[in-house]
Automatic annotation (TrEMBL):
This is Thiol-disulfide oxidoreductase. It comes from Mycolicibacterium bacteremicum (Mycobacterium bacteremicum). The lineage of its organism: Bacteria, Bacillati, Actinomycetota, Actinomycetes, Mycobacteriales. One of its GO terms (molecular function) is protein-disulfide reductase activity. It holds the Pfam family DCC1-like.
Length: 146
């Protein structure tokens, strides 16, 4: 299997001001042995272009896992399915989370939505999206990508 290039590497869209989401991104960075998963805030130009290609995402405030971004093969997964995509991507012991696939997606997504409503109370909220440290900055899609 070939390593994804920067242009077709998967991208995780996340709430850039959410403390829980930023903590999750830091965890993913720590365990991403391939070092190819990229990240973009939901309010970035990159994310807006993804949403324009998938209009049903417009009213969602959720994590989005994007495979083959910008290509004719582009696919998106949201909510619990996106989290399972991340677990699958990370591999190793993270694959244990894939056992959650036995839970019906509607139930998983209700649980996801319930947590999402309290995520700012649990993990706090930033005024602006934090700037990633220099050693991983290249993994974050610029707001002025293109």
């Amino acid at each position: 299997m070939s390593t994804p290039t920067e242009s077709n590497a998967p991208v995780l869209l996340y709430d850039g001001v959410c403390g829980v989401c930023n903590g999750a991104v830091r965890t993913i960075l720590r365990f991403d042995s391939r070092g190819t998963l990229r990240f973009a805030a939901l309010d970035s130009d990159f994310a807006r272009d993804i949403i324009a290609r998938h209009p049903y995402l417009a009213d969602l405030d959720t994590v989005v896992f994007v495979r083959d971004p910008g290509s004719s093969r582009e696919t998106v997964s949201t909510q619990s399915a996106a989290l399972l995509q991340v677990a699958d991507y990370l591999g190793g012991f993270w694959k244990l989370a894939l056992a959650a696939r036995v839970i019906p997606p509607a139930v998983r997504d209700r649980l996801y939505a319930a947590f999402a409503t309290v995520r700012y109370r649990v993990g706090g909220q930033y005024d602006t999206c934090p700037i990633p440290p220099p050693e991983v900055r290249s993994r974050f899609v610029d707001a002025t990508y293109g």
